[in-house]
Amino acid sequence: MKRYSKEFKEQALKLSDEIGLKKAVEQLGINYGTLAEWRKTRKRILSATSTTKTTPITEREIQLLKENQELKDANEILKDALGFFAKDRKK
């Protein structure tokens, strides 16, 4: 199970903003879907915390968004593992 540090995620997001998602994935050697999900989550968090929103986002909501992303990352890892083992059984 591959876990990425908060710092790595932030740097990966910054890189993907600068050079694009596809190039960042190739350069970092991570799953396209993983980085795409990180970007979606960041976008949701930023839009939820924007000043145009009438109701402010609470710390609990931020915590839940982060937890949700961690669970999505874990699911992605499990899907990859399932594919690996299913492929191995076909031999």
Q: What integer value in Å does the Rg equal?
A: 16 Å
What CATH calls the topology is Arc Repressor Mutant, subunit A
Number of helices: 4
DSSP strand count: 0
Shape: globular
Explain how this protein is built.
There is one protein chain. The radius of gyration is 16 Å and the shape is globular. Helix 1 crosses helix 2 (21-28) and helix 3 packs antiparallel against helix 4. It has helices at residues 6-19, 21-28, 32-48, 59-89. The chain has one domain: Arc Repressor Mutant, subunit A (Orthogonal Bundle), CATH 1.10.10. The chain is built from four helices and no strands. With 91 residues, it is an all-alpha fold.
Task: Furnish the topology, listing elements before pairings.
Elements: H1 6-19, H2 21-28, H3 32-48, H4 59-89
Spell out the key features of this protein.
mainly alpha; 91 residues; globular; Arc Repressor Mutant, subunit A; 77% helix; single chain
Q: What would a concise description of this structure say?
A:
By secondary structure, the chain is mainly α. The protein has four helices and no strands.
